[in-house]
Amino acid sequence: MATNPSLVVLGFRRQIVYHLHFWALVAVLPLVMVQWEQGHLLLSALLALFCVNAVLVIVCLRWWKFYFLQGWPFVLLAILSSTYSTVINGHAGLYWAYPAAAAVFFLLPLRSAIACNALFVVTMSVVSFQRFPEADFWRITFSLGLTCIFALIFAWLVGRLKEELVQIATTDPLTGCLNRSQLADMLNSQIQMRERYERVSSIVLLDLDYFKDINDRWGHVTGDRVLKEISARMKARLRESDKMFRIGGEEFMLVLPETRQREAEQLTQQLLINIASSPLIDNIMATASAGVTEVKKGDTWSTWLNRADQALYQAKHRGRNCLVGGQEPIQASATIVSPAS
Q1: CA-to-CA distance for 192 and 199, rounded, in angstroms?
Q2: 291 DSSP β-pair partners
Q3: Most buried residue, 39, 57, 151, 317, by CB count within 10 Å?
Q4: Is the dihedral of CA 2, 13, 153, 147 positive or negative?
Q5: What is the pTM of this model?
Q6: Residue 280's Cα: distance from chain center in Å?
């Protein structure tokens, strides 16, 4: 079971795709021979291609975790087969249009699925108008249209639910920062960029000084407001590509892609000055300490993070309100103000 919520969602999507193709294969495979024996060679060929695609998707998902052609062969072959079967077989072919229309919403992106099914309903309406009595034409058009609408609503709500669940699982509810669930994946992606393309990234561990004193003196509600204010100030100075995590009570981590350690130190110094130079809320002053390091060849995410953690420890040991990057600490040009004083 993946620990990254985004990967968990992806895993469930793959299961949906896998089962749709598997059970469609079970249902359609006998029809290949049935249509062949009835002399419908073109329809038999379309169904055979459908089965071949289903087998390829199942094999690719099971052994290589790869979604073969992203569902398009299933959709196109299912629509073509059900439409052509309705033309030559009448109501016997029509029945397959309904599961085909519903499956489209689980296999394609929502906008693509809407476009495909809109065209499908129009096509089936034309076929029904020519093939069946007028009363049947209206029943088929409205029932197939309603099936698409119901499937669309369900797929849209499931998509919204997925996004909200991923948002809840990956972000800190207080500050809106990312949480630890994606930390390892984020660091590993930057390490891969370093190994493959020599693109250097840096991380910053930043910890609020004497935060316990704020909680003890003004209460945890005020402490939460302080954390929100600090995170807002830091976010305002970051680029869109930078990522900010809350990895502890008052500890934050910044991931700065395409940033050398010297540049990261300059940014961190500005952040420390910004935190210490003006009251956070209700005239409460505070400072922070930070450890900065860039990724090196041969790093794992844990060794890279540990190096930043050791630098943060040195900053705390050397008096706080400073950052340590490399060998020497860089003092933030602001006076340390203890919240308890």
Answers
A1: 9
A2: 205, 324
A3: 57
A4: negative
A5: 0.71
A6: 33
